[in-house]
Structures are given as C-alpha cells and as structure tokens.
Design a protein that fits this description.
Pfam families: VanZ. The protein is of the alpha+beta class. A hairpin with a 4-residue loop joins strand 7 and strand 8.
Length: 368
Amino acid sequence: MLTAVFRGHEQFVALAVVLSCAAGVVTFAAARRRQGPPVAWGLWGACTTATLALTLWSTGDGGEAASCTVNLDVFEPFRQTQGLLNFGMLVPFGLLGVLATGRPVLTAGLGLLLPAAIETVQALAPIGRACDTSDLVSNGLGALLGTAVGTVLAKFGRGTPLSPGVTRKALLGGGAAAAVMAALLFSTTEFTVVSRTVNAVPATAEQQAAIDGRLRAAFGGAYRADDHSVTLGEDGTGTVTAFFGVGSAELSWPDQAEFTASMPPADVAPGAAFAVPGTTRRPATGPDAVRIAEAYGGRYAPGWLKNAKVQVSRSGPEAGLGWRVRWRRWEGEVLLPGGLDVLVDSAGRISELTERTAVDSARADADG
C-alpha cells in the first residue's frame, strides 16, 4: 500500500530522509552540549521531522482549506490498514520522547499536541491534505502507547530528566499552542460530522477469491495481492479493492461487471508496469501499440478481441503516458456494452487495464 501511496514521489521521499537525518544530527549535537542522552534526542528529532514530512507534504492539487471531518466512529481507524499505519507512526515519537526528556507527562502532552497541530495545518493550509479526527485519534493513541513503553524502558536506563522549570515552560507553551489552534479551527473551519468516513471493510474470502482470480487471469499470475478491502453502499453494491505492491485493482461487486488494474507507467516508475511476454520493442506509433496490446489480448484475454473493432489514441498529459487501445463490439450502428481497454506505456508495457462486461452477462456468468 505504501508503494501505491508514494509512487511517483521518490524525490520527496529522498528529501524527507535527508531532512530527518539532518534534524537527528542537529538534535544529537545539541543534546551533547547539554549533557543529555544524545542518541535518544537525535533519534527523537529525526522521528519528529519524518512524521511532519510524511503528514504535511503537499499532494500538489491544492485541495480545499478550512474544512475538517469529525468522525463519530472512533474505532474506525483500527479497522483499516491506513489507520493502523497512522497509529504505528507515532509510537516511536512517544517512546523516544520519554527516553530523551525523562518526562512521561510532557511527552504524552506533546504526543497529543503534535497530531492536533498536523490536523490543524491540514485543515487550514491548501496543501491537498484532509483534516480528519480519525487521524488525530490513531496518531494520539499511538503516541500514548509509545510513551507508556518508553516509561517502562526508562526505568532501566540512565539519563538526566529535563529540569522542572523547563518542563513547566514546555507544558505551558504547549497549552498556549493548543488554545491558539482551537481558536483558529473553530473560527475559520467548517466541520462535517459523519457516522464514519469510509465504508471500506476487510473483504470476505469470496470477494478476495473473486478479485484475485481476475488479477491472476489478467496478468498470468505475475502479481499477488497482499491487501484487500471492500466499499459497499446502502444497496449492497460497491467495489472490492486489492493492492499488489506496485499497483492496485478494483472489481465491481456483486455483479463483477467491471475489473480495473493500474500500475505506474514508464515515465513515473520505469519497469513497474506489466511486460507482455515476447514483446521487447518500444512503441513509436499507434500501430506499434496496437500490436503490443493484441499480443497481450491474444495471450490473456482472447475473448475480448473476437469480432471487436480496435481503436487507438494517445493518452495522458500531453499524450506522454502512451497509447490507449480499446476493443468494442458493434451490432450495425449500435455500440454494444462492455469492452476491453489497455494503456500501453512508452516502454511497451501494460500500465492500465479495464474490462467492462454487460451487467446481465456478468450476473449470468456468476449464476452459471
């Protein structure tokens, strides 16, 4: 899942690593001058910087500022992979904070203040990130768990706690910062209260088998999903999603009429998309892309090509992502529902796939 989140942002990841290491070195050097536990301080500084970098980097789309979602289902984050990742992200902050400062109460306070500050920035700043109380809950509880573990470990270690005066000033400063953030949020932010923010739940064994089977058939077993979820509406229809390291797939449910899969194309992550066996030539023209797509279809989806007309067009920003090849069936002047779309990237690999079947046919196949 993390690969899917950060693909195409390798430069940001590298910059975040550099900044985190630099912060660790600075805090380590500062701690040595004050005779504190320098290793713990250095790691805490690096951990804090990494957390800020991961949560505040801009997605580049601007987003909508001054809005925040209040989720009444406080346990929702712990039923989702993303929520568990958010929980784990702040555990090191709490643990290292206690080992560095020797002050569990101060660390716990900072562990709650940090995610609150992150959500405030996400709410107010146009960086394309969403403010959500679910993130605050999972981050805050992770920090508190880390604080508890750090408190236990500190009993067996050596170190000089921060002086009572410094601790008192830090707590007062944190309280003042919290008051300012609360005033900003309640005076400028539109809050949306929901019973839960997503309807995604772990996929059932049947749903996992269905999407895994389609994924295996589409790419000859080249990919294996390691995370499955399903999002359903009130009418029971929705989408099953599977992540397989370099990409993701979706299957409409329960009709199973539409299957899609996507991997980063060559201009985003060279070599990540699916290489069709027996094809090595990079496409230079539309007909080249059609030949690659036909080689794919003839091997993995021959039924889609039979009695179908093919169309090809350039795809992506400034047509730089490759060629989109489509197969559609016609009955006279009537376009029949369903079809196969593939995106052949500039390296001649399949980076996107969509199979659409008429709903009635899909249900008949499922019933049969």
